[in-house]
Design brief:
CATH superfamily of the largest domain: HUPs
Strand order of the largest sheet: 3-2-1-4-6-5
Shape: elongated
CATH topology of the largest domain: Rossmann fold
Radius of gyration: 32 Å
Number of strands: 22
Number of domains: 3
CATH architecture of the largest domain: 3-Layer(aba) Sandwich
CATH class of the largest domain: Alpha Beta
Number of helices: 14
């Protein structure tokens, strides 16, 4: 049974951190019985609410009727109202998507634009919606998370709560009747044009002939699966945290570690989902473990690169660096570490450190300011010990760097000339000689 008392008790149980009288709520109001009952309950609970209605202009005069009905309701209760009219058909054609997908994208984008500070969006999803969602996910072949259904609470892109999710459609209608809550009917709900309507109007009624408590049973199962999903997620997350390491600024995973769960889709999905992969790519990702050196699989945001016995995880939008250096002494912080600059008298250098992380530059060849930047495909230089120029790309290829490490290489440049391929080799034109009087010593530390 749905009453104001049961509603507030359920609220305190499901949303203990959300004060019903101290928060501003935006209620998604369609005019149907579910959202009208939600608005009635929140108003009766003396909550601070604003109503928000989207007129999708899909049902002609009926859409106009719904908007006018909501305007009258808001005016009667003196409640603030926001209305958004949109040509959904035009939007769907423009972005090449289905009507339902377009409507969902439109309304949630608009709701998001209305939310300010700690505002919370309320939607009127209920127990029957949960049953339909779980069944749809099951028929689609979803994984464990899909079978957990609609969450009571979200606070990611949208700050959202669904306070009616524990109550059935029948209970909502009984409340509307008992409290004389007026509402309008959406004629499209009786049609089987959409998958959800087909499940609602045809499949579930047949299931209820055998399992009368189907809604409650599926809801209870979804709640249990949520607990199981949390355990699985924590286990999988901890496994990958122990395996993924950062090497020279690059996320790296030993293939031997991944092979501990070889072929396990749950573990693989737990790793790749945050990098823009789709579930359908799990098989291809598994193939990468046996692929040739340098093979990779990409998403719009990341690449998984096979290199030797490791998988490197590299962002596609790694920013290029371009830092101007004006002084000859001090420390320069870069995204991959730091460079320490020290001006010295050549006579004070007893021995040149051969480490590639230290460069000794003839200061007389410098023209300040100098530049620290990411290397480019057009770069060339004269490697120390050689008298002819070499494309930097070819030089780096000879070092047998991984693709990810190669992308991170930076240079110190003087005008158009490369002075030092940082951490690898100085240019022969900038080496110190017996005639050198002043030396710029540069030491790189960190991931450079």
């Amino acid at each position: 049974m749905l009453t104001l008392e049961n509603f507030t008790k359920n609220w305190d149980k499901k949303f203990p951190a959300l004060a019903i009288k101290k928060t501003h709520f935006l209620i998604a109001l369609s005019g149907g019985v579910d959202s009208m009952v939600l608005a009635h309950l929140m108003h009766a609970a003396k909550a601070h609410i604003t109503l928000a209605h989207v007129n999708f202009q899909l049902r002609g005069e009926e859409s106009t009727r719904d908007e006018n009905f909501i305007r009258d309701f808001a005016e009667k209760l003196k409640l603030p109202l926001q209305v958004h009219r949109v040509d959904t058909l035009k939007y769907a054609e423009l972005y090449k998507m289905g009507i339902q997908e377009a409507a969902r994208e439109i309304r949630y984008a608009w709701f998001e634009s209305l939310l300010k500070n700690d505002d919370v969006l309320l939607t009127a999803h209920h127990l029957d919606d949960q049953t339909e969602t779980v069944l749809m996910q099951l028929f689609r072949g979803t994984g464990l998370n899909g079978l957990t259904g609609i969450p009571h609470r979200r606070n990611d892109v949208l700050n959202l709560a669904r306070p009616l999710l524990s109550f059935s459609k029948a209970q909502i209608k009984d409340y509307a009747k008992a409290n004389e809550v007026a509402y309008v009917e959406d004629s499209s709900n009786d049609k089987d044009d959409y998958t959800r309507n087909l499940i609602r109007n045809k499949i579930i009624p047949q299931i209820q002939e055998v399992y009368t408590n189907v809604n409650e049973n599926i809801f209870a199962t979804a709640e249990k699966l949520k607990e199981a999903a949390e355990i699985v997620e924590a286990t999988v997350s901890n496994f990958w945290k122990k395996g993924v390491k950062t090497k020279k600024g690059i996320l790296t995973l030993p293939i031997s570690y991944w092979n501990k769960v070889k072929g396990n889709a749950t573990y693989t999905w737990g790793l790749i989902e945050t990098y823009g992969f789709k579930p359908a790519q799990i098989t291809e990702v598994h193939k990468l473990l046996e692929a040739n050196n340098g093979a990779y699989i990409a998403t719009p945001t990341h690449r998984f690169i096979k290199y030797n016995n490791e998988i490197q995880i590299v962002a596609n939008d790694t920013p290029k660096e371009h830092l101007v250096i004006y002084i000859g002494e001090g420390v320069l912080q870069t995204k991959n570490g730091s460079l320490h600059f020290e001006m010295m008298d050549a006579s004070n250098i007893a021995k040149v450190d051969p480490s590639p992380t230290i460069a000794y530059i003839d200061a007389a060849q410098l023209d300040w300011p100098i530049l620290y930047r990411t290397w480019q495909s057009t770069d060339y230089f004269y490697p120390l010990g050689l008298r002819k120029k070499k494309k930097l790309n070819h030089f780096l290829g000879g070092l047998k760097l991984s693709p990810a490490n190669k992308e991170q290489v930076a240079i110190i440049a003087v005008g158009t000339k490369i002075c030092w391929v940082v951490g690898h080799r100085i240019d022969d034109r900038f080496k110190i000689t017996p005639q050198t009087k002043k030396v710029l010593k540069i030491t790189c530390q960190g991931k450079l």
